[in-house]
UniProtKB/TrEMBL annotation:
This is Bifunctional oligoribonuclease/PAP phosphatase NrnA. GO terms for molecular function: nucleic acid binding. Residues 221-302 form the DHHA1 domain. Gene3D superfamilies: 3.10.310.30, inorganic pyrophosphatase (n-terminal core). It comes from the Archaea. Residues 18-161 form the DDH domain. InterPro entries: DDH_dom (IPR001667), DHH_sf (IPR038763), DHHA1_dom (IPR003156), Oligoribo/pAp-PDE_c-di-AMP_PDE (IPR051319). It holds the Pfam family DHH.
Amino acid sequence: MSRPRELEDRLGAAEELTIVCHNNPDPDCLASAFALGRIATAAGIDERRILYSGDISHQQNRAFVNMLDIDLRLFEAEAVRNRSAGSLLAFVDHSVPGANNRVPAGTPIDIVIDHHPIEGVEAAFVDHREGVGATATILTEYVRELETDVNSALGTALLFAIRRETLGFLRGATRAEYDAAGWLHDHADTSLLRTLSTPSVTGATVDTIASAIRNRTVRGSVLISGIGRTSERDALPQAADYLATLEGVETAVVFGIVDDGIQLSARSTDARIHVGQVLDAAFGDVGSAGGHREMAGGEVPLGVFADYTKDDAQLFSIVEQVVTSRLIAELNLAEGSGS
């Protein structure tokens, strides 16, 4: 039996489905959850919910949710903890309880569909493909084989997610992404795709990116920039995307304090560096970090740092020293090579 048919059978035997997105979900996660919900509907599940935690603050992600009318709910611990015998718990675009999600570690998971490189994936049903460029690609295969009804909203969501996750098919794209995109083309609203691709940018986001540019330090082909405290969490990956395009820069890491944690975002075109492994090795012992060779992120609780001072400038000075030194050590950079 094929994986889509196996999933269909598993859903058909259930009465309820809870889909948990990872923290601060991106289009790949949201579109995949949207698609899995449609597959569950076709399988006869009437009770469905998509839960998320953190923020949907990136202007593209907000537009994505609003314009496609995706029904999301804030994470509810009770919905995960007190599930009935006929209820399934699913992860899309992430795999392990407690890693980039608020589900307690050790919680049994029924369904996992993901493409991120990570070890220790366990569930009753697992489709974990590290070689695929987007989780939305896998879900596109599922809706195609199962002949799920794909209206313009779902088609647009999946196609936009694949394009965004692969940076317009320039990062991590495989033949599977092109095949999925070709099929989705006839199901998507091209006008809406253009709108989603060019959302308005807030002044606060521009200010955060400007801070990253101002505070950059370059060591060889590696750029590191700390932006202090910000409310614009999603400006960090945007800043990393931009700084990685600077002449001579092959790897860019941007970090800042958001609420009660340190957020990191990294990009790399250096074939010698796997930024997901770099961030995991540098911060995995004190937080959650990882990702792909070209794109990665991480979050470290402020914890003991916050006990030193309540002054943001002093606090970030301490954070900057620790984060920078860990990155320098893990990337094997010479301390005196800054510019």
